[in-house]
Design goal:
The structure is a single chain. The protein is built from twelve helices and 23 strands. It is of the alpha+beta class and about 475 residues long. The chain has two domains: about 200 residues, Immunoglobulin-like, CATH 2.60.40; about 140 residues, Neutral Protease, domain 2. Strand 5 and strand 6 form a beta hairpin. The relative contact order is 0.09. The structure holds tryptophan and zinc ion. Tryptophan binds next to helix 5.
Length: about 475
């Protein structure tokens, strides 16, 4: 990669002087080391980057759907967590036009999904730094190990960005691992007549010279995999819940009719979830419905989940439950996915139980007996691996993570009773609000809240154990 060098031609003498100094310093004194190209995620080892913690992303994007061309500027504010001689950002595809650090051109190079930035001198541990990446190109669609599509997904009249688990590196450079959450500002410019919808609150909309810029602000920490932008024609409905929370819903016009009844339930579902899970963690809510048909799945994008077509009530309950479990309490690594999907699935069971459907116990029993699905292979698949130890990256969204994860929660409920159980799921959301947690944090939390109960069999057989747990 030579572009990085040519970009910083003006700096080269200074850079080599500093490098020479640094080399001398290396022989004796304290010096920084590279941050590293990953955070040792057990399933996605090269996602995320070591040595720093992003506090804020300021993204300025300009998209031309006709040419599928994106022009972006990412201003990333981060704090060094060690003395850094270099740091990496994750970026998939796209052309980098330049990188600055503290406003000055800086050396950089690319290798695969790693964009490595080499400051002329060390960044000290604890220091806050600001780096700007200018880039452009046609953002790519990434195929996951399980074959699903994510990243930048073109639609008939625009695009939708979906980022679980690694898709966000297709449209902006960053520390793309759930363990590093940050606040966001996004300014998205599109041809006049189109809308750009994202996470958080709309703070500005301005049209000039045939293009409209939409400004979105996310004040609460957000993992990059639940960041989104949706571009296209949408029917927009803005309303306010009884408690004052803004609701912003964007629906592709040809799904408007089919979506209406279900989306009108957002306030009711939100109120039921606040009652069940505790205070809602974000400053607005809503939904985005579009045809990113290559995706075919919904995603719990923060404050505004995306649906690949008119959602049903179960799906809406599921994605909104993720706002507490996944978006506010975020896994420390992709191994902890069941903390997202087990909870969101159990939320569906609880909703049914409270709204005249099957009880959670009935659903649990059907799954255990193996007559839940139409196809007996699906019933069998639940026991393929334990929720807390997916067999590989290709299986992190399989039924052992979802249904068997929910069964773990039901086992806890059976053990402690309803009052203690609901206090636990609320308390868990409150304790790790806007943070990160893993399975060990969860089991320790449950044990602390119910000190006289014995969870050893549940953890050993249901959470970590291979095969179908026996009846006790
Ligand atoms: N999290 C999504 C849901 O609400 C499903 C999903 C989409 C997913 N993409 C993924 C799960 C990638 C794991 C990995 O259920
Ligand atoms: Zn889910």
């Amino acid at each position: 990669m030579i572009a990085g060098v040519s970009r910083s031609v003006r700096l080269v003498p200074a850079v080599s002087a500093v490098l020479a100094l640094a080399l001398t310093a290396c022989t004796g004194g304290v010096h920084g080391t590279p941050g590293g190209s990953g955070v040792r995620d057990p399933y996605f080892p090269r996602t995320g980057n070591g040595g720093y913690d992003v506090t804020h992303y300021d993204l300025t994007l300009d998209y031309d759907p006709g040419r599928r061309h994106l022009t972006g500027t990412a201003v990333i504010t981060a704090r060094a967590t060690k003395d850094l001689s270099a740091f990496d950002l994750d970026l998939n595809g796209l052309d980098v036009a330049g990188v600055t650090l503290w406003g000055r051109g800086v050396r950089w190079n690319r290798a695969g999904q790693e964009l490595t930035v080499r400051p002329p001198g060390d960044i000290d541990k604890g220091e806050t730094f600001r780096t700007t990446v200018r880039y452009s190109g046609t953002p790519g669609t990434i195929t996951d190990p399980d074959g699903s599509k994510e990243g930048w997904l073109p639609t008939a009249d625009g695009a939708v960005a979906l980022g679980e688990p690694t898709g966000s590196m297709a449209w902006f450079p960053g520390n793309h691992h759930p363990s590093d959450k940050a606040t966001y500002d996004m300014a998205v410019t599109v041809p006049k007549g189109l809308q750009a919808v994202s996470n958080g609150e709309l703070t500005g909309e301005r049209t000039a010279k045939g293009r409209t810029t939409f400004r979105w602000h996310t004040a609460e920490p957000m993992a990059s995999y639940v960041a989104t932008v949706a571009i296209g024609h949408y029917d927009i409905t803005r309303s306010t819940m009884r408690n004052g929370l803004p609701v912003y819903v964007a629906v592709t016009p040809d799904e408007a009719q089919a979506s209406r009844t279900t989306l009108a339930k957002i306030p009711e579902i939100m109120e039921w979830e606040e009652h069940t899970f505790g205070p809602y963690p974000f400053s607005s809510t809503g939904a985005i419905v579009d045809h990113a048909h290559v995706s075919g799945y919904a995603l719990e994008t923060q404050s505004r989940p995306v649906f690949p077509g008119a959602p049903d009530t179960q799906s809406l309950v599921h994605e909104l439950a993720h706002q507490w479990y996944g978006d506010s309490v975020t896994p420390k690594s992709w191994r902890d996915m069941w903390l997202n999907e087990g909870f969101a699935t159990y939320a569906e069971w609880l909703w049914q139980e409270d709204h005249g459907g099957d009880t959670a116990q009935e659903i649990f029993d059907a799954l255990y007996k193996g007559d839940y699905y139409d196809d007996s292979d699906d019933d069998e698949a639940i026991w393929a691996f334990p929720p807390a130890k997916p067999s590989s990256a290709a299986h992190i969204s399989d039924s052992p993570v979802y249904e068997r994860g929910a069964m773990v929660l039901h086992k806890i409920r059976q053990t402690v009773g309803d009052d203690a159980f609901f206090a636990i799921i609320k308390g868990w959301a409150a304790t790790h609000r806007h943070g990160n947690a893993d399975t060990a944090d969860f089991t320790a939390y449950v044990e602390k809240k119910a000190p006289h109960k014995d969870f050893r069999t549940i953890w050993r057989d249901w959470l970590y154990g291979d095969g179908k747990p026996g009846h006790e």
